[in-house]
Amino acid sequence: MRLAWAEPEDLLAHELVQATDEGKDVADVRDRWVAAGGYPTPAVSGAGSAPESPELRALARVLLDELDARPAPSAPREPDDWGEIAALLPPAPTLPRRPSGPGGPDAAYAARVHGAWTGRAAGCLLGKPVEMIPRAGIEEILRSTGRWPPRRYFTAVGLPDDVAARWPWNGRSAPTSLEENISGMPEDDDLNYPILALALLERHGRGFTTDDVAQLWLDDLPAGRTFTAERVAYRNILDGRPVPETATHHNPFREWIGALIRTDLLGWVSPGDVRGAARLAWSDARLSHTRNGTYGALWAAALGAAATVCDGVEEVLDAADAVVPPGSRLAAAVRLGRSLGRDNDGSEAGVRAGLDRIHAEYGHLHWVHVLNNAAVIAFALTVGRGEFGPSVSVAVTAGWDTDSAAATVGAVVGALRGADGIGEQWTAPLDGRIATSLPGGEQHIDDLAARTVALAAPVTGG
To answer: One MF term in GO for this entry (predicted)?
Structure first.
């Protein structure tokens, strides 16, 4: 049996890429690995990037230890400690702490939270069946079924056999995420994690620690439903390694997207308080991620905090910028996405040109990395101009981590527009239900939203 995201020989191939991206000189390690018979580049799926042999596995562990111990060039603009991160941030924006609305501020806030849960589910569901399929394949599938650009969920109805053979659906997702077989939101880690965050706050409050997150994973999160950095961190927890070693030991995925998908809810319970949301996100993210992987979590939480009170996408993005170290690579990725979206007319040609530019900049990274996907999220939100369908469609047709990027985008736009403003073609198939692999099984969006609102930080003004 080969276990994706955990075999030492596969981790080493990914570590060679990650260490190089961090500025480490790894040529000697790569040469030793290749000379021994290892593959120098990782497989797309995270498994099978080296022949199986006890000797190679033992060597991979030795080389991973060497790379872990090898210092990266000084990066003062990308610290891991919260105090050092906060010292780099600009002043937090002054935002209203509750949105206004015809039903009063609390009713308006509750509607935003309900929209965020609904939008996150709908965006994730759109991207599920084409996760791991590249841009060209996604477009060919959509065009061949008459759905380009997507304004409804994917379908296999009318899909030519040759296209289906060339671009097979995500095997785990297709049976529950094509329009003809959707019955509620199917299980997905992009929804498991906000539900876990809800349980975390209900058990420990806003003073939770990273150790509390680790214990919650052990109690409630099946190991087989973790991936990339979370799977490595889970292994490190079971190995008795302390935080933050859980995020660094043999973990080449430490700057990937996993932490970003976990923290929306920490923003939803912090309406208008982007800095407070980011601080909560840091406590969660550091279990499994470092530097830009952590910053992605801070940014996602701030997007959630801003989307529950702001009036438009640009205001949300401006507010969330205030929690990302300005000299970091994550900040550069977000700036690129936003700049390409602002100068874009949203036409098919314009969107294609924007995505081409993002792929030219970040196409060397794995499809689950945080930098390329953050650029896509920023671009999709900006060019979508607050419309749900166009925004999540851009996030999905960009390729890469289609369900995660569209979930984050969908949550922001869903909060801004409310569930009624998302569109029945997206909301009706959800039927207000979310399947999970967590204790308690299927959840109802109404209940999740009510529990979220009950946890909102008490505030008295702006």
So the answer is: metal ion binding
Q: What are the structure tokens assigned to 94, written together?
A: 């002054």
pLDDT, residue 440, reads 94
Q: Is 403 annotated as a binding residue?
A: yes
Q: Is 391 annotated as a binding residue?
A: no
Q: How far apart are CA 389 and CA 403, in angstroms?
A: 14
User: Structure pTM?
Assistant: 0.96
Instruction: Give the integer Cα–Cα distance in Å for 268 and 307.
Output: 8
Residues 433-449: pLDDT tens digits?
999 999 999 999 999 99
Q: CB–CB of 457/205 below 8 Å?
A: no
E strand or H helix at 238: helix 228-238
Q: Given phi > 0 = left and psi -120 to 50 = alpha, else beta, which region is 67?
A: alpha
The letter for the amino acid at 337 is G
Distance (Å, rounded) from C-alpha 113 to C-alpha 450?
8
CA distance 158 to 144: 8
Cβ proximity of 238 and 211 under 8 Å: no
Dist. CA 33–CA 294, nearest whole Å: 30
273 labeled binding residue: no
pLDDT digits (tens, 9 = 90+) for 228-244: 999 999 999 999 999 99
Share of the chain above pLDDT 90, in %: 89
